Every structure is written in structure tokens, then in C-alpha cells.
Amino acid sequence: MTRPLCPQMPSDIEIAVAQIPKLVTEIAEEIGILPDEVESYGKYKAKIELNILDRLKDRSDGKYIVVAGITPTPLGEGKSTTTIGLAQALGAHLQKKAIACVRQPSQGPTFGIKGGAAGGGYSQVIPMTEFNLHLTGDIHAITAANNLLAAAIDARMFHEATQSDKALFSRLCPPKKGVRSFSKSMLARLHKLGIEKTNPTDLTDEEAARFARLDIDPSTLTWHRVLDTNDRCLRQITVGQAPTEKGLERKTAFDIAVASECMAVLALSKDLADMRARLGRMVIASNKAGEPITAEDIGCAGAMAVLMKDAIKPNIMQTLEGTPVFVHAGPFANIAHGNSSIIADRIALKLAGIKEGDDESQNGYVVTEAGFGADIGMEKFCNIKTRVSGLKPNAVVLVATIRALKMHGGGPAVTAGKPLDPVYVEENLELLEKGCGNLGKHIENAKKFGLKVVVAINKFSNDTPAEMALVQEYALNVGADYAVPADHWARGGAGAVNLANAVIEACSTPSNFNFLYDLNQPLSKKMEIIAKEMYGADGISLSPEAQAEVDRYEKQGYGDLPICMAKTALSLSDDPNKKGVPTGFTLPIRNVRLSAGASFVYPLVGDMSTMPGLTTRPGFYDIDLNSETGEIEGLF
Amino acid sequence: MTRPLCPQMPSDIEIAVAQIPKLVTEIAEEIGILPDEVESYGKYKAKIELNILDRLKDRSDGKYIVVAGITPTPLGEGKSTTTIGLAQALGAHLQKKAIACVRQPSQGPTFGIKGGAAGGGYSQVIPMTEFNLHLTGDIHAITAANNLLAAAIDARMFHEATQSDKALFSRLCPPKKGVRSFSKSMLARLHKLGIEKTNPTDLTDEEAARFARLDIDPSTLTWHRVLDTNDRCLRQITVGQAPTEKGLERKTAFDIAVASECMAVLALSKDLADMRARLGRMVIASNKAGEPITAEDIGCAGAMAVLMKDAIKPNIMQTLEGTPVFVHAGPFANIAHGNSSIIADRIALKLAGIKEGDDESQNGYVVTEAGFGADIGMEKFCNIKTRVSGLKPNAVVLVATIRALKMHGGGPAVTAGKPLDPVYVEENLELLEKGCGNLGKHIENAKKFGLKVVVAINKFSNDTPAEMALVQEYALNVGADYAVPADHWARGGAGAVNLANAVIEACSTPSNFNFLYDLNQPLSKKMEIIAKEMYGADGISLSPEAQAEVDRYEKQGYGDLPICMAKTALSLSDDPNKKGVPTGFTLPIRNVRLSAGASFVYPLVGDMSTMPGLTTRPGFYDIDLNSETGEIEGLF
Q1: Which residues fall within 8 angstroms of residue A388, CB to CB, at 6 or more apart?
Q2: Is B444 exposed, middle or buried (0-12, 13-18, 19+ CB in 10 A)?
Q3: Is there a catalytic annotation at residue A567?
Q4: Does the distance separating the beta carbons of A227 and B147 come in below 8 Å?
């Protein structure tokens, strides 16, 4: 998180390396994970075995808190820092069982302008180098799975284009020791085609041809390759230009790895079998008859699941104060749902929960973070993530900053890499008051889900007592259950004890959690509900393309999926320049896309870049190894 | 390794999963690695910290044995299996300290037609799933480093094309809190340009322009992107076609990850500082004046080293019989040198060695494998790998099979996936005798390096005693120091005890190891020596392009590098169809390429594919997770 200069504070990396982490095995033991349930990857990170859920199945769940934020400035308002600071306060200061659940950051942008993402100040995940680089290889596994499917699609199109039906069938089911056989995925495809035969020699020529020829319409192909690198020149490419490819070239693109549907699948899977099934359901194109073609049809969903079999196990690390942190999955918050994994939350909730007969006071807390502003991250947390998991959140912590509220009140633009305007570092109650409406709208939104709302006013060093008091009073007036200044960036968990106590109180009485819409409504109706209720739009308008896509998905049987809006986080509206609480606008939906494996439909509201670039002087210039000590220099 | 059907034997995967591995911490302890020097990645694989070399620096090295082979059939003749079987015999049966050092297999081909690579039968590395998939992420780290450089190159060309000298310089050295500064790599570039200034504001306009403008000649760009996926349609592509790239499109390619020069650098680095320096020296293009442009000039060699900081630590696993195996690096054997890492060998030799005052009988053995036939793998092991490491091998184990020798004697073609001709499964002494010359040539070659030669006749179930005896007698007659039938595939280490005893005896007297050529000879002279001495060619012929490339590299100061021939392994000559001992041919060199970071020049003798494809029914069709047990099915 980027902060104005604060001369007393050491830098994030100085703070992080000054702290000697506990062994991850110790962290795991403290939270009740058995030695056999943890798989160390070095000293400070480990994977948790999924069978822990069997052992703990009779426990109640701990309290479930989602951290969301107001509409942010481009610098971010400290949701991650607050998630970590709150967990530190609950665990290290109030002696509660407490686990933070966060997303794994994308590695590519670490070498661009972003720097590391591990909280900030005295509220961080450590070691931050391991958190930001490779971790335990989950994103690499996703990259491998995603690209295996991509290679398989193009290879299949090549083989179909260059072989007769008969040759194709014969090569798909070659004799092994004289016997032809179908693989599991081939049997699934036959079943889908209504051919209930299990012996390749029993198929008629017509059946063999239908089975063998996927007949993909290249113009409908949506599956991209991915890399965890900021590589702008891969945004649009032509492949298949080697002489071996016999002229079968086509345009396609690379996205950054975390934009892969495989990442969204990982985050939304309930268990290994669910992940395997979801990978198989992913739609990569339509055939020339307009029917969806899936990864199962391509035959490599099983192999993708094999590549991701360790990635599905959550990673455990720790905060600066030794509180456990689960780091797992990091899907995009626009074209995907921007939340960490269901599996990590489930395990954390069981570890935090209590056995029958235990005292309720021993119940613990799981603090999970939702990406972007609450209009996006919290909405998707509630309508997509918890709908799959069946877990009921108790409260939302809404992170607000004086800086962002001043911007919403009409303050000048806040831009990464440029000095802040003086209004952001001097007291300005008038501007601040004007901007509070944005916080009010997010409080109202959270209330629509029946959640307890705790506003965390994340303190920066220049914020004045009068400014903090103004926001606190405003929040309580417009319906927040609690509103608490928090100073965990400068003071660690100690700075978030009041916030933690408010969260404990908020969770002590039941919430009335509910979804914003029913799945059985038409796709466009669900989009409209989100646009009106969350964004304050008058309604939505679908482009002709978007309407056609909606019609196709409904016809193909995907009409009952939830909606995952791909919208800017920088405004409640579709226009990043409209701050505060925009009204009187219609949400324009240009295109609608399907993630059938992740199980949502995502309308595109504006341009969403899925491949970042590198500036003239990217971060990598300053990153190096100290050849004598082997330490990393310049990463943060 | 592919074998003819042997009804008594269980499959490789059945054998592998029937054995419960020891904990990797136990394996490490047994070989004398301290707990602090090992970093577990799960239960059965770990990384070894490089500082172990400081602790053991006063020890002598153990005995150093390289396993090479005769010219193979396309099915492979069991070098990996022999490496593992020999280590099992030395360690588990003869109670010697013994460590096998092998390459990490590429993951991509695992989903194509190759299947896993971990030895075979009762001589395997386990767990084979972890060996073949992800391992500890080294190849993923190489992919990330390779592709960061690729993205940085294209981004730099884009920024140079769209900015004035002044703007470019200003953006490369932007003011931070009012002060402009150079990064470490920028200072290295200035030094290279002869500009000994350290303050950006001191540069003249002309100096600033020279510094800022790399002026890459796009037609000389050799750096490819990589993926660890068999993706044929990336063999030739056009990038930069998005509107954001302003028309700066160009043709380029993806290779499979293990073909990256970063992999060769990893394998040849002596330590972390050496790896960092080699990454910086990698040449990615020439500028328009014909001068080499390096990764250091691009400014991201330090960041690449950071991405590879864990990859440089060798991985430890185990054989079926609990012998330690170091798995580290897997460079191509044609465009690179095809040997596992120097660092792994160095650590293994120190662990196998003895302290002053220890009894010589306690000295141990390190068995390392060289890829392809001995004309390639062993030659590069001796002339490239040991020249960098300074380590002196004691003996070579030359693996021969009756099957391959019959092929060299004129037997019909051996093709993967097709049934073997009866001559290969029935006794045929005449054909066998005719083919022994190939073995003879490899023995002669090994002798040219002054090495003790132990021929291992790797027994297949159909091989007859008369056939084994014929090869044994032949080998001893033409100068092998030892020739021993070995049956470790069927019997594990017990089947290689005689081989192990021969190796022990061979290592008990000194070898007279020497290089085949001096580095200070001209590049083409060094190529000629290899062609004549190793391949039996009459000489070499350079195409005009190759000659121009040789001239350029010598002018640029790369003339003293060793040669890394990119030649087929399927013949001693350049023509894979010429079996036995081809004579009367001139080796045609079509192009010559430079790996300045790995530090060799590689002449291209024929087409070398650096990106495999997928067949109509690739292996992935049969690979799946058992959703109930989570076990992998169909991988091998």
C-alpha cells in the first residue's frame, strides 16, 4: 500500500526483515493443525492438507468477517493492511483464535511498478519476498494447466483440419496391444453426444465422426494462453506461423496468469472433486452448430486437475506478530470475483470454531479480504463466493480513509508516482464532509446483505483528530453498527484493538445474511439488480452484441449462473472519473462473457486490461541479489 | 525408458507406488547434511542450502563417475536406469556413500507421448509423480526469468521507438524526491560505454543518448519466450498486434522452457554470484552497429537472479532403495550441454568425500548422467561442464544394449509406439557382432579423454547369455577397462553389484583426464576437432551464414568459448539414419549461435526442434485424478 512519506517509520521491507518469523510448523501447531496435516515448503511457508476438514467436520465454524472498502484512490486504501492488522489485534493482543485469509499476489507486476503486496507498515505478511515470489508455485501450476488446455485446443484443431474422420477416430483411439479403448473424458463426451457405447469398435461411422470432430468455430474461441509476466506485446498475437502448421494461423492473446479461469476455479472449488468437475465444464468455444465445447471435450481436464492437485491446498504463512495467515488463490476482481479461496476460508473457520461443549468464548475469528471497492469485492463475496460455499458471514469491515473521502468530496486527482496535493495532507473538514457520501453508499450496500457493518477508519500520519471524528460520526449516523479509527499501519495489532473489539461485539449477535438476487431470474435482470442496488444506476443498457451473448448463454443452459461484473473499482459507476456517489447514469454493458467452470457470467462494463505492461523504468531495474549475502535488494 | 513387454514385471508406476519412501529429512541426514542445510518441500523432496559447501570445503572429493551411452535407438538404452541402479548397488548393497545426480525432466512432454522420466523397473527415482511434475518449481522459476527478459526487451524497443532521447533518458532516471540516480545495472552499462560518471545530471546530451538508446537491430534478436508446454503453434508467432503497440509488431517464437539459456546458465553456474554474472552476460541481440546487447544492458539480470535464487539450490530425492538422488537442472542436450548442474555435483562430491585422516575406504561415489550418446553428452560433460567446474572425473560408465547394437548391425528401424521386429527379441549373434563397432567407437572416444571405461551391458529380458558374452568380450578386446552385464532394471541394485564393483576398481587407480581441445584455438578448429575425433568425420563444412557468424563472434570477443554441438543423438554422424560407425562424411554446419551467459558457442548441425507438439491422442487423455483418493492415474 502506498503511503505519503512518514519520516519516523522505517520502510515496509525494513520492518519485515527486522522481524524473525516463527517456524511455519510452530504457527500451524498453535492454531491446531496436526503435524501430518501440514507440508512445509521451506521454513516459513507450508501447505495444509485438505483431509483436515474430515477431522474437524463436527466443529462449529468460527466467526466470519469480510474486509471490504470504500471506492479507493489508485493508491489503495489499506484493505490488506487492515485485514492483517485486525487479525494481529484479535490474535496477538486479545488472545482470540484468529486467522487472516488473503489472496496470493500476481508475480508479474512485482517487477513492474507495483512492488510487493503484503499489507504494510507494522501489519504485514512475512517473509514478504516469499509471499510475492513463487510462494509454493500455485500460480505456476495454474499457468501450466491453462496453457496445456490452450496447446491441446490448437493441436486438436490442427489434427482435425489435416485428417479424415476415419483417420482422426483411429488415432484418437489407437490400438494398444490390439485393443482400442476410450479414456474417461472420451466416455464423458460420448455421453454428452447421447452415444452410450463403451467400445470404440461398436461406433457407427457417423457416431465415430461426431465423436472425433469437435468442429470448433475458430471465431468463437475465448481461451487465451497466460504468463505471470507483464508482457504488453502479447496482448494480441498471431500463432501457427511455422511451416509445420500448414498455414493454420490465427489471432489470439496472452493474459496475465491470475486472469485465467483456472484461477477463478481454484478459488471457488469446494474440494478436489469439485475442482476436477469445474475444470471439465470450462467452455473454450462453440462448435459450428453453436454448441459449447468444453475442456472435457478436449480431453485434458483430468491432466489439468493433476497439474493443480497441490495448488488446491491452502498456504499458511504469518503476520509480523506471528498470527496465522492463509494465502490462497488470487483471481482478478473485474473479469473474476476477486476473492481468496473457499477452501482456505472453510479450513480457517473450522480451526477457529469450537467443539460441542466448548465455551462460546473460545470461538475464533476468520478475517477474509474482498478485492476492489465493496461494490465489487463485497458484492461478489456475498453473491458468488458464499453462494457456492454456503458459509454465512457475520460482519463486514468497511475500510475508509480520509484521503479517499476527500477525493470523493472533490479533491484533485490522486495519481500513483506523483506527489499528493496539499488538501490530502492538511486538515480539510469541508472537503472531507462532502466526500462521506461514498462511505454512506457502501454502508447502505452492506446493509442490503443483512450484514453487521464495522467501519474502520484507516489512519494516515497526517489525518487529524477532527477529521477522524467527523467520519466516525457520519458513519454511525448513516447506519454503520460501529465506526472505529484504526492505527495498525503505524502500531501493528495494538493500533487495531478497538477495531477488533468492535468486530467481536458485532459478531456476538446474529446477522441476517441474504443474497441480493435469486439465481433463477434472467441474466439481464440480475445485472440490473446489481447496477441499481449496488452502483446507484438507473438501469442497464445492453449492446446488441451483449444481448446476443445473453441470449446464447441462456439458450445453452447457463442462464442460472450468478453475475460477475467487470467494472472499474475507481467509481461506483462505470466511469472512473465520477467520484462520490454518481447518480443519473445507465450502466452500459458492451459484452457478456462466460466462465462456465468458475460458474459465473461476466458482463464487460468498459475496457478491462488483462495484460499489464512495463514502463520505461520498471521496478526490475532496482531489484538484484546481493552476491555476498544472497539477500534480495530493491524489491520493495 | 521404454521396454519390450515383460510379463513378470509390474509396471514402473506399480513398482514406484508399492515402495514407501523414507522422509527426505532422513535421506539428507544419512548422507551427512545438517538439518539447517536442508529445506523440505513436502515430505519427499527438499532443497539443499549452498552454504553446505563452506562447511565441507576442507574435505576431499569423492569419486566422480559419468554415465554415458552408445548411440541410442529412439527408445533410449537405459542411462538413467543405470545411473540409479548403480547408485543403488553402491549405496544399498555395497554400503558405500553413493549419490546419483540426474537432470530434472521437462514437464511439457509428460503430457505428450513421453510419459515420465525417472529411471525404470526396480531402478527409479521416487515419488515419480513429484519428480515429473513441478518438483520444487525450478523450471517455473526459469520460465519466469526468461520471460521477464523477453518482456523487458520488447517493452524497451517500444519505449525507444516512441520517445525522444531526452524523454527516454529522463524516464530511465526519473527523479525520486528530486534526485535522479542510476541503478547498479545502469552503472554497468555506463562502464561498458566508457562513461565513468555516477550522477545522471553529469552526462552530456550525447552520453545520455548513447546510454539510453540500446538501438537494438530487430533482425538480430535471438531471445525467445518459453513455456513448459508442448505447444507447436507457438513455434513461430507475430507479437505486438494490439492497438496499444502502435504497429511495432515482429515475428518471434516460443521454445520449451528447458531450452532457455537460463537453464544452461543454472546448470553451469558455480555459485550464486557466478549465476548472477552469467545472466548479465547473456547476449540477446546486436545493436545497429553490430555490438552485442546483453541482459545487463536491458537492466533485468538482477531481477532474473532473484527469480532464480531458490532454483540454484539442488533438490534431493531418493531411489527405490533409499539412496540419495540429487535432481538439478535439465538443459537440452543439443542446443545446450545436456548435463545436470555443477553445483549438485560439487555438493555431492564433498558429501561423498573424506576428511583428512579418514580412511580411504570410506571414500564415496557420485554417479552423474550425461544426456544423449557419449559422442554428445560425455563430450560436453568433459569439454564444457568439467572445464567450468574444475572437477576431474575418474571413470565413465558406457551403457550398451543388445537391442541398440543389433540396430547398428543393420537391424530394422526401431520406432516408438510400434512393435519391435523379431530380431530384437530373438538371439542373433551375427547382427549383434556387426553392430559392436558403435560401442567400440564410444570406448575409443572415452579413452581420448583419459578416462577409465566401464561398459555396462544393460540386460533386457530377451537377451541371451551368448549375446551378453559376445558384447562383453568385444568391449574388453577393444580397450574397455571393464565390461559387465547389469540387470538392475529387473533386480534393482542387486542387479548392478558386479557393475558397482567394477566401478570401484576402476576408480581405485588414477585416471589421466584431459580435454579434447584448447580454448584458445579458433572456433572452427575446435568444431573440426570434435567432428573428426568424436564423430569420425573427415572434416567440417561451414555454410556462408555459419562462417559469418563465426567471424562475428570472434570479433565480438567470444572466440575462446567452448563448442556445444547441436547434433542428432541417433547417429555418430549428422544423419540420424546412418547407424553403426559412419565414415567418409563431412559435418555440415548450417548456423552457429552464441550462448554467452552459459558460455559456449553452438553450431547447428541439422534442424533442432525446440518446441515439441502434441499428437492426436496425447498422454493427457489418460491422466486424471481419482476424485476419491486424490491419486494420480495414467501418468506413466
Answers
A1: A268, A270, A342, A599
A2: middle
A3: no
A4: yes
Buried b (16+ CB within 10 A) or exposed e, B379-388: bbbbbbbbbb
Same-domain pairing of A358 and A464: yes
Angle at B354 between CA B63 and CA B454, to 5 degrees: 15
Number of domains making up chain A: 3
Asked if A227's CB is within 8 angstroms of B624's CB, the reply is no
Give B 609-628 residues with CB within 8 A of chain A. 613-625, 627-628
Say yes or no to pLDDT of B230 above 80.
yes
CATH of the domain at A293: 3.30.1510.10
CATH code of B345's domain: 3.40.50.300
Domain boundary at B308, B338, B354, which?
Answer: B308
d(CA B604, CA B595): 13
B132 and B143: one domain?
A: no
In a domain, B225, yes or no: yes
Q: Are residues A196 and A70 part of one domain?
A: no
Within a domain: A627:
no
In a domain, residue B620? The reply is no
Please report where in the chains the cell 524489491 appears, as a residue: A635
pTM for this one? 0.96
3-state secondary structure of A446: helix
Residues of B designated catalytic: 79, 81, 103, 114, 333, 372, 460, 489
A276 counts as catalytic: no
Give the residue carrying C-alpha cell 501493528.
A492
User: Are the CB atoms for A316 and A46 separated by under 8 Å?
Assistant: yes
Task: Give the CATH number, domain containing residue B569.
Answer: 3.10.410.10
In this structure, is residue A334 part of a structural domain?
yes
Residues A503 and A537 in one domain: no
CA distances from B290 to B187, B286, B297, B428, B552 (A): 22, 5, 15, 59, 9
Contact A76, A2 (CB under 8 A): yes
**Distance between first and last Cα of chain A:** 11
Of B327, B374, B311, the closest CA to residue B105 belongs to B327
| pLDDT category of residue B114 using cuts at 50, 70 and 90 | low
Q: Are residues B132 and B212 in the same domain?
A: no
How far does B382 lie from chain A, in Å, by closest CA?
28
Tens of pLDDT, residues A73-91: 999 899 999 999 999 999 9
**The domain containing residue B229 runs over which residues?**
139-308
Judge residue B346's burial from the number of C-beta atoms within 10 Å of its C-beta, 0-12 exposed, 13-18 middle, 19 or more buried.
buried
- Please state, rounded to an integer, the average pLDDT across all residues of chain A: 94
DSSP 8-state code for residue A325: E
Q: Could you tell me which residues come within 8 angstroms of residue A391 by beta carbon, excluding any fewer than 6 positions away?
A: A61, A64, A342, A345, A346, A349
Both A248 and A356 in one domain: the answer is no
Q: Where are the beta strands (DSSP E) in A122-231?
A: 123-126, 225-227
Q: Are strands A119-120 and A395-400 parallel, antiparallel or unpaired?
A: unpaired
Q: Residue ranges of the alpha helices (H) in A282-428?
A: 295-298, 301-307, 342-352, 377-380, 386-389, 402-408
Residues B318 and B302 in one domain: no
Tell me the chain A residues in contact with residue B225 when contact means C-beta distances shorter than 8 Å: 227, 231
What's the whole-number average pLDDT of chain B?
94
State how far the Cα of A232 lies from the Cα of A244, in Å rounded to an integer. Answer: 27
What percentage of chain A carries pLDDT values higher than 90? 89
CA atoms within 13 A on the CB side of A103: 28
Q: Are residues A535 and A500 in the same domain?
A: no
How far is B14 from B142, CA to CA, in rounded Å? 32
pLDDT tens per residue, range B32-77: 999 999 999 999 999 999 999 999 999 999 999 999 999 999 998 9
Residue B1 has a pLDDT of: 39
Residue that is last in its domain, among A456, A481, A507: A507
